Amino acid sequence: MTEESWSDADLLSHIVDFILKYKFLYDSPNIKFLSDSLWERIPRNWLQYLEKLSNEELNSFPFQKPTPYCPKTLLEFHAASNKIFTHLFNSCLAAVLPNKLSAFATPLIQGNSSMTIKKRHEVENFTILLMEYCKLYGVNRIIDIGCGVGHLISQLSQHFKVVGIDCNEKFCRRAEKSCAYAKIICLTIICDGTEDQKLLKFLSGDEHDRTAVVSLHGCGDLQPTLLRHFCKLDRNRVPLIFTIPCCYHKMSNLGKFVHRFFLLTLLDEFKIFH
């Protein structure tokens, strides 16, 4: 059975319908899960089913077909979310290599028992997009900031000149063992602007390098810092940045930005009505 074909408009429509149907899961930030008792929004029969799963089964739940005992409404949620993800991911790939989607039917990562199913899923799909966009933009060097133990760079180092940066010495030592062809640097990136020029020079690399900056699950202030630096870089030297942030609640200047956003919004409304 061939997969149903969706246009971009169809995909957007399905995403909107999905979010509206399950907005009880999506209309609050997950960092308030405990403080606002967000679990009370989840259907009781969903919780009863999920509570019986082991940690391994729970980690694999988003990526594997649930058991026959799974509640019907949870099965519907699972099927809808996976269908949307598949079409969305293929749509992103098609924008880069429209005739080669079948080449990615086989997993990139083989037999890495140190990765959970969730982590493997993230690394595999992120690697695919990185590799194709880097080829498209002629990138030969990748800097992974917040590389951890090296799951991502171990895949990328087979195809690119790779530098992994992390502030955790134990993670760096593990990354060095698993990524023989990558350069690992134990470094804390200062987010207060005092080391800007040094970091910009390092990110730019040698004159013959074209670099992509990558950060998978960088915490707090790291992501806005990287974006701020990327805006200052020469696009001929550093044409790409890929960031997937996490831990927004650790951002030291979050309150300032939020207040500024609301202030500007109020000023705009004032201009409109006056």
Give structural notes.
- By secondary structure, the chain is of the alpha/beta class.
- Helix content is 48%, strand content 11%.
- The protein is globular.
- It starts with 7 loop residues before the first helix and ends with a helix.
- The model is unreliable at 101-106 and 254-274 (pLDDT under 50).
Q: Could you name the key traits of this structure?
A:
single chain, 274 residues, alpha/beta, Rossmann fold, 5-stranded parallel sheet, 11 helices, 48% helix, 11% strand
Q: What is the helix fraction of residues, given as a range?
A: 40-55%
According to DSSP, the number of beta strands is 5
Strand order of the largest sheet: 3-2-1-4-5
Low-pLDDT stretches = 101-106, 254-274
Characterize the biggest β-sheet: 5 strands, parallel
What is the count of structural domains? 2
Mean pLDDT, nearest integer? 78
CATH top level label of the largest domain: Alpha Beta
Please identify which CATH superfamily of the largest domain we are dealing with. Vaccinia Virus protein VP39
Give a brief rundown of this model.
With 274 residues, the protein is an alpha/beta fold. The protein is built from eleven helices and five strands.
List the helices and strands and how they pair.
Elements: H1 8-21, H2 23-26, H3 44-51, H4 55-60, H5 72-96, H6 117-136, E1 141-145, H7 151-156, E2 161-166, H8 169-178, E3 183-186, H9 196-204, E4 211-219, H10 222-230, E5 240-246, H11 254-273
Parallel strand pairs: 1-2, 1-4, 2-3, 4-5
Helix pairs in contact: 1-5, 5-6
InterPro entries: Methyltranfer_dom, METTL25, SAM-dependent_MTases_sf
Pfam family, one: Methyltransf_32
Domain Methyltransferase: 118-252
